[in-house]
Structure formats: C-alpha cells, structure tokens
Amino acid sequence: MEKGQDETDAVNAGAEDNRLQRRSRLPRPMRFTLYGLSLVAVCFLAGFAVFSNHVANLSPPRSDRMADGIIVLTGGHQRISTAVGLLKTGHGARLLISGVNPIASRDELRAISGADRALFSCCVDIDIAALDTIGNAEESAKWLRRNAYNSVIMVTSNYHIPRSMLELRRTAGAVEIIPWPVANTPLDGGGWLSRPRVMRVFFTEYTKYVAALVRAAAHRVKGTGESESVRAALGNPS
C-alpha cells in the first residue's frame, strides 16, 4: 500500500514539475531577444576593454613629424600648452584653438598657453563656434580649407583621439590628420584598470564613440541610398 502511494506521489510531483517548467518557459521570440541582448552586452564590454587599452597606450608620433597646420580641441590646459609648444618648434605654420568659450579673451588664452605675444598674434586662430566634437570637426574643416592645408596635427586627450579622428575625417576629406594624444598620467600596461575615475571617463567617451560610429554608418547608408535614387532617376543604374 505504501509503495503504491509513493509511486502516485512521484507521478504527481513529476506532473507538477512539468507544468511549472512549461509555465516558466519563455516564448521563443523572447528567448532570442534575450540572447541577442546578452550578445550585444558582451560585445559592448569587450569593445570597451579594447578601446580603453588602445587609448591608454597611445603616444605622440616621432618629434620630427611635421604638418601644414595644428589644431587643438579645448578641454584641458595641457592640450593647449602642448599645441603651442608644437607651434613654437615649427611643427605647423598656424594653430587653431577650437571650441573656445566666447567669454574667454585672447589674453587669457595666451596666458594659459604660455605663448609669447608675437607668436600668439601672428599664428594663432580661435574658434568660438564649436560646442562639441562634431562642431570642432566642422569648424576645423573650414579652417583647413581657408588655409589650403593638406595635413594637420590634431592635439587632444588620448581618450578623445578615436572620436575626434572619426569626426574630422568625415569633414576634412583627403587632408592627412596626424593625431597627437595628450595624457595627464601614464596609463599604459593596464594602469587604467586601477583608477575608477579614469575608467568612468573612458567609459563615457567609449559610449560617445560607439554612438558616433553608428551615426557615421547611418549616414553612409543614407548617402548610398540617395546616390542610387539619383542614378535611377537619371536612368543610369550602374
């Protein structure tokens, strides 16, 4: 009698487990969505690690690398002083300081940069129109065209180099861009991993860089679609 009761209880328990499994099992589309989101998250974090390691190990090019002009993107005093130092040593004929606060005077900028009055007066241009990296790229491209420059050294923080290069290449066309990274503290060899504040800065910039990549890809797709529409309207599908 006890054996029969045990068997009945086991069958009932198994049936209950099956019902619970069926009830908790997610629909296939939802499972695929969760798998896809998990894959995106893993790829995003892996990309962040690659990005951080890359920018932490960036270093300026050899000291004899010259260009027609120099551009510095504001965001730190060390960026401007580095760019002025390059101007002093003849690495470029003129310097554009892009993204300057409109309330800042030329004298204040000169004092920050450490440049003498003669050099600042003759060879430094100031852009107050740019409000972000996209604006930096647009205003820098105008400056490059006005001066008919074919090459430029771009000075900015190491973590800002990838996004700045992406945006300036979009606006400057065939101009050769030489990145000149500025680092406040040495972070190579994985040093960024032990600095929470640096990791936050890197993560914020990486998120902006990914957004810039997506935007650039969308523009290319849109441009391709518009070109195909024009060719079709002209009766020239090739």
Any overview of this molecule?
The chain has helices at 2-24, 28-56, 77-88, 106-113, 117-123, 133-147, 161-172, 196-233; strands spanning 69-73, 94-98, 124-127, 151-157, 176-182. A 5-stranded parallel beta sheet has the order 3-2-1-4-5, sandwiched between helices. Helix 3 links the parallel strand 1 and strand 2 (94-98). The longest helix has 38 residues, at 196-233. The chain is α/β, with parallel strands linked by helices and 238 residues long. Among the domains are: 26-57; 69-183, Rossmann fold (3-Layer(aba) Sandwich). The model has no long low-confidence stretch (mean pLDDT 83). The protein has 8 helices and 5 strands; from the N terminus they run H-H-E-H-E-H-H-E-H-E-H-E-H. Helix 6 crosses helix 7 (161-172) and helix 7 (161-172) runs parallel beside helix 8 (196-233).
Strand content: 5-15%
Gross geometry? elongated
Q: N- to C-terminal separation?
A: 85 Å
The number of helices is: 8
Structural class designation: alpha/beta
Q: How many strands, what sense, and barrel or not for the largest sheet? A: 5 strands, parallel
Indicate the percent of residues in helices: 55-70%
Which residue ranges are poorly predicted, with pLDDT under 50 across at least 5 consecutive positions? none
How many strands in all? 5
Rg over CA atoms: 28 Å
What order do the SSEs take from the amino end to the carboxyl end, as H and E? HHEHEHHEHEHEH
How much is the average pLDDT? 83
Kindly report the CATH topology of the domain at 69-183: Rossmann fold
Q: Record the strand order, biggest sheet.
A: 3-2-1-4-5
- Can you say what the CATH homologous superfamily of the domain at 69-183 is? HUPs
At CATH level 2, the architecture of the domain at 69-183 is 3-Layer(aba) Sandwich
- CATH class of the domain at 69-183 reads Alpha Beta
